[in-house]
Amino acid sequence: MNCELSCCLDIRDPDLAHVGNSVRQLIGFLRDHGVSDPTFLSQFELACAEAINNAVEHGCANAQEKFFHARIYIRPEYAELRVLDPSDFKGWDYEPLLPDDPFDEGGRGHFLMCQMTDEILHETSESGHVLILRKRFAIPWEYIPGQADATLCEMTDELVASYEMISTLIGLGEWLATAPDMDAFIDGALERLCSVTGAGTAYVRLDSGGSLKLSHQWGKTLVPLQGAIETSSLGMESEVFRTGQEVTIPLDSDLPLSDPLTKKIASGFIAPILFKDARRGILFLGKNVVSSFFDAGKLKIARTVAEYLGIITELGALQKRRSEDERSLRELEIAAQIQLSLMPSDFSGFRGLDVFGTCRPALQAGGDYFETLPLPDGSTLCVIADVMGKGLPAALLAAMLRTNLRAIVSTGKHEPHEIVASINRLMSDDLIHLEMFITMVCVKISPDHDRITLSSAGHLAAIVQRKSPDKTMEDIDAAGLPIGVFPDSDYASETFAFHRGDRILLYTDGIVEAENHAGKMFDYDRVKFALSEKNLVSSKDALEELLEQVNIFTGGAAPSDDRTAILISRTL
Q1: Tens of pLDDT along 12-60?
Q2: Distances from the Cα of 60 to the Cαs of 14, 302, 367, in angstroms?
Q3: Dist. CA 184–CA 204, nearest whole Å
């Protein structure tokens, strides 16, 4: 029979005591009408508890009239819970991410509900905010008349156990929000589990790269346990971890001599600790004295604790990864500071030339590099380079390039083609091994500033702007292979006149290839236009205006590649 059933609760002036009672009635309604999958019920129960708890604690917090309505529907494909509270909440405006601090309540409930259900919706009505949770059945539900009578006895037997489970669930939720750290939470959860179930001991083993390491233990009735066991070893604990299936060890069980639990327990229960499909470890609950085994209600509580432990271990792992990411980010920031400090920032020492250069890396550290050096004969050397890639590896190669450049210049090699060829010979072996390369252009301005000699290793052509009335633009290039392609590559030079009022722009592809929201690039024409518009201002102002035009073109988006340029004007 294909139909829809529902059950409604209307609670006025609610408090936390209503949460457990309401969840018990709603989940009982599901059981009463043929929903029997224990995993489905357990997960939906967690989600319902969070939803109703949110309505009581947050939805009613600032309302004059405090209430909540909860209605659960059973449809052929899914179960649906609708919870109405008097708030004007419109829904979360962020993804269901784990909070930075696992013990910070903010965001935890949202994340938990998303993990335990398939869909979360929000609606508004004249009465307030409606939270909708939906969870699909693995097998379509079908209503069978009279099924409620057949399950009434079973429901009665489980009533006390359900109350204990909901009470434990709420207690764990409160402890999760107040525990000082993950270790304290797990210790407290095991203590509560032993108290509720009557177990002599409970412990957790967590996966530690091929072994299950004893992480936390509560209770002293067991003899000392092994600190770690191999996940590939024989034994109940490793088997539960490998298969993801729980195991019961009833009284008088004959365990193999190879099992670490042999002669250490009278009875026990082992549940996998999972987060979604990822295996995190195992939870053990045991007795060391001959007594009745854990009943179904106690085992259900243990499963609930195992689910909580799966979530909390994922929270802890995420927090650790975030801490490592923050440390890596800080290391990148330090690398960026070091890299930028290696580039010139004072351009006042070039008589007769107005020089300015800048580098704006895409990441905290980038692969662009520029240099301006006065030479002993009064010439000026300017270099700009772009290492393939971004981030720390590119920054390290850029720093290596700087060291090699200065070493070569100090030996007396001052001609651009000699400098580029020497750097290529020094760095090619490493670059070929790393499958990386560097483009570079090297410019030498003569002592009287009337000539420029340029050599290029696969870099963008320099742009020369003449002072002539029509402000003509020339592209100057000296074609050569990038550094790191062939160790014995030769490089040519181009020499051209440099008149008073002329200027030359060296730049990297992060400027011309910057894209706007439509996917169009800033391109060479826009570079030349921005340069011509600012032909009467200083090199610093003109270059900063060029980069601002790039920023406006891209809508202020973070750069996808480093943006570096040098502008040199002849003033005398």
Answers
A1: 999 888 898 899 999 988 988 888 888 899 999 999 999 999 899 889 9
A2: 8, 32, 55
A3: 13
Please tell me the class of the 189-319 domain.
alpha beta
SS3 per-residue string spanning 371-398? EEEECCCCCEEEEEEEECCCHHHHHHHH
**pTM of the predicted model as reported, rounded to 2 decimal places:** 0.50
Would you list the domain boundaries of the chain?
Answer: 5-175, 189-319, 342-570
**Single-letter amino acid code for the residue at 390:** K
| Contact predicate 141/75, CB 8 Å | yes
**Chosen CATH of 342-570 out of 3.40.50.300, 3.60.40.10, 3.90.550.10, 3.40.50.1980:** 3.60.40.10
What CATH number should be reported for the domain whose range is 5-175?
Answer: 3.30.565.10
Task: List pLDDT tens digits, range 61-94.
Answer: 888 899 999 999 998 899 999 999 999 888 887 7
CA Rg, the chain, in Å?
35
Q: What is the pLDDT of residues 549-564, one digit of tens each?
A: 999 999 988 888 889 9
- Asked whether the predicted pLDDT for residue 1 surpasses 50, the reply is no
Q: How many residues does the chain have?
A: 572
Beta-carbon contacts of residue 434 (< 8 Å; ≥ 6 apart): 393, 397
